[in-house]
TrEMBL record:
The lineage of its organism: Eukaryota, Metazoa, Ecdysozoa, Arthropoda, Crustacea. This is Uncharacterized protein. InterPro entries: Serralysin-like_metalloprot_C.
Length: 67
């Protein structure tokens, strides 16, 4: 999931970009699908969830490499 790594980095810029990256991430990372869907809802309301999602995306990158 190399593309997922790039989208997670862009995710720190804004919640809007994060929504797009989560949609693309769903295609390549099955385990991250649920967390991304929830993140889309919370990201609209605040930036803290975006910061937390960045950590989740980093962990997801490791799990994707293992897959």
């Amino acid at each position: 999931c190399r593309n997922n790594t790039l989208s997670c980095r862009n995710n720190t810029l804004s919640c809007r970009n994060n929504t797009l990256s989560c949609r693309n991430n769903t295609l390549g990372c099955r385990n991250n699908t649920l967390s991304c869907r929830n993140n889309k809802l919370s990201c609209r309301n605040n930036t803290l969830s975006c910061r937390n999602n960045t950590l989740g995306c980093r962990n997801n990158t490791l799990s994707c490499r293992n897959n």
